[in-house]
Design a protein that fits this description.
The chain has about 500 residues and is of the alpha/beta class. It folds into 2 domains: about 10-270 and about 470-489, Aldehyde Dehydrogenase, Chain A, domain 1, CATH 3.40.605.10; about 270-455, Aldehyde Dehydrogenase, Chain A, domain 2. The chain has helices at about 5-10, 60-80, 80-95, 100-110, 120-135, 170-185, 200-210, 230-235, 245-255, 280-295, 315-325, 345-360, 390-395, 410-415, 430-435, 475-480, and strands spanning about 15, 20, 25-30, 30-35, 40-45, 50-55, 140-145, 150-155, 160-165, 185-190, 215-220, 240-245, 265, 270-275, 305-310, 365, 380-385, 400-405, 420, 425-430, 445-450, 465, 470, 480-489. Helix 8 packs parallel to helix 9 (about 245-255).
Amino acid sequence: MPLPFLSVLAMAGISQGGDITMLNHSTTIDDRATHEADTFEIRNPSTGEVVGRAPNTSEKALDETVARAKAAFPAWAATPDAERQALCRDLAGAIGEHAEELAELLTLEQGKPLNGLGSRWEVGGAQAWAAYTAELTLPEKTLQDDDGGHVTLARKPLGVVGSITPWNFPVMIAVWHILPALRTGNTVVIKPSPNTPLATLRMVEILGAMLPPGVLNIVTGDDRTVNLGALMSAHPDIRKIVFTGSCATGQSVMRSAADTMKRLTLEMGGNDAGIVLPDADPEAIAEGLFWGAFINNGQTCAALKRLYVHDSIHDAVCDALVAYARNIPVGDGMDESSILGPVQNQMQFDKIKRLVDASRDKGTVLLGGEPGEGLFFPPTLISGLSNGDPLVDEEQFGPVLPIIRYSDLDQAFTDANALETGLGGSIWSSDVDAARAMAGRMDCGSVWINKHGAIQPNAPFGGVKKSGLGVEFGEEGMAEYTDIQVVLS
């Protein structure tokens, strides 16, 4: 490893063991650093090497952590809004100061490359999102002030917020959960995915040191020894769960949260459709289509996962996508030349391979299709499929895109809307106004024109149907971390 990286490891408290980078973290309870006796390994999906260990938090330790967050809540909620805002600005700055350290940890555990739309991009986005969220306010509103009375609406923090984050964007999504919760006066207990806890542990360590004790807390586990997510969802002292992950897990969270009537924000799976209209320019849209589908190696909830292309330009779009995709370097995320990396874990790799294999009899593999060594799977484009085929109906969450030919536009919208999920969708056309006018025909929470998955901090984001409950981002997303209190006089 180059010397600059070794210096980052030293600053992070990481020691070298042969060729394997080891990171051992502790949880913090009542201001005492306590090392869990039981830990689990974190492996680099590019190499299979162990890059660190994280604590297997016990049920007792979880209860103590939640109690600590609950005890810290009254003082944090009473902190003047301007003071909380200033602290949140400082948190955003701290992410930027530690950006390279966090990006390298993220690459080691998640696999995504440092460059391209990889770890440095993710951490930069996390900093920008934190900075934007810090500036949001939810001022008291006067609903009525006349002879009939005076009515105001205020928003009050909930208490302890439990955050459950996935393995695909562990740093970015942690910021999406943490910052609005803190900004509105809540305290936080976050549980990252067992596949990718290291960068989140380090970020919480950095940010937590800047906040009053107990305001920001983290628990980790391998989901086998103790099911922390289920315990958090049912915990009587956690007032809200914000979850990003699969539909099945989100449904479990909702069920286990019912007895305590928790507030919920659930951003769950999607199987996003894109529709290419016959007037689109295949060469002009190829790059946007590729990154809409293959950002983070396709391991993105709001990635383009089904592409419906009009018969008149179907072959030209396929050719343009193949020409663009074949030049994207795939390799070890720590290699500065890599633009895409491996699939993050074996379970997801096996699902991708199963869906590709099931497509071979009916579909035509235009590019890729054959797994590489370890967890590497090349960008894969498959034509000739239709609704009802597994790769179309199931969310692949990986570097594979089915391209579906259509001739009737009404049928294309029907097919795009046929599934039970509805996170995002896109329409591609040379006539932006015409495409925008069609956006309402898509059953999904976000519709993009001539791009896909381009979320931004000022635009609420959430799904319809089985893709989720509630929204994130902007004032609407931040309001979900509060209860309404109306005062009438």
